[in-house]
């Protein structure tokens, strides 16, 4: 009881000492000044859910003064996140446009930080990766194709940079690059870090070059290498998400995803740090699309 009372006292102190900070229209959420993430037009702050006593992430997307119709369009990311309910997708609680400059989105706070920092801190890590950032996502319609450009440069598929029409299979490419980073601990295309990093990465992806990190996987696990290579294969050969579940690397173990009643791949429950020998900086090129 004493521990509970002390917690409640500390919680009340936090709430009472932050009356000067921004709150949402319902006054349930408080935004702290601690920045936990920065994007092109978005800044993410740590915050507090005063009703439930848990930390949250408060995203502020700068849009300036816009019409109601435009604000509804810009709120697509939040609306999409709020409609999804899955343990591996970041939960969105609410969102609103302040009528002046920002769209605000309240979501779960990923307390372990970003994937790269988390990987570098742990020799053994639990792969509870959550999807977030649906700013350029769209709802899929039958035979959906697109030619708009958007995303994180290192993870975008070559067909996007080449200005070709593409579909949801570009997400499979991004997934493959994410798996590569998880198992090698390397930032994708880190070999290009320098003054012109972004342009060098774009040129490399557009030209069809794999990141050097892929050479580390070569002798470690043939099934893992095959899995990543299929994910980043040319669009015409790239498998859909459901096809990937049949890959040897994702063989089911009988355990089931609680929300989807679907087998959970054994190797994604826990990945041990890979002791991989660095190879020469040889480049492997994508096949022509």
TrEMBL record:
Highest rank taxon of the organism: Eukaryota
Ranges where the Protein kinase domain occurs: 1-250
Alphabetical keyword list: Kinase, Serine/threonine-protein kinase, Transferase
Enzyme class: transferase
Signal peptide residue numbers: none
Keyword Aminoacyl-tRNA synthetase annotated: no
Name assigned to this protein: non-specific serine/threonine protein kinase
Organism: Chenopodium quinoa
Organism lineage string: Eukaryota, Viridiplantae, Streptophyta, Embryophyta, Tracheophyta
